[in-house]
Structure formats: C-alpha cells, structure tokens
Amino acid sequence: MQDLIIDLGDAVHYPETPETLKAMVKDLATKPRPIPAELPDEQKRVLRHWVGNDDGIAGRRVIEILRHEIEAARAARHA
Hints:
With 79 residues, the chain is mainly α.
C-alpha cells in the first residue's frame, strides 16, 4: 500500500496521537492562522509534485468554482 500513500514530508504537521489530532483541529478552528502571502518552499514543492499547483491560490479557485455551480443550480431551478 505504500505506493498509494502520499508523502507530504515537512509541508504538513503530523499528529502523534488521536488526542494530538483533536487538539490541532480545535486549535485551528478556534484560532485560525493567517494565510501567508506566499507559500513556503517545501509546501510549493509538494504541491508541484502531487497536483501541479503551487501558486497558492487553489482556495480562491475552489470558492469561485463553488459560486459558479451554485449560481448555475439556481438558474436551472428558475428556468
């Protein structure tokens, strides 16, 4: 199965235990971190390798795609 596991290296933080994961999720939900203007080099490298996208604006693209889909669904409902 190792061929199916994506190794994100130092680009992500790995929790050691389920309790650590819960604490990480709670911390991120209650105290969001600022989004950097530019991604760190290691994160860019991982994104470029796995998805071919290291420009740092994937979130913005996803929001635009979702808005487009919602508007298309609304228009179809009212047609």
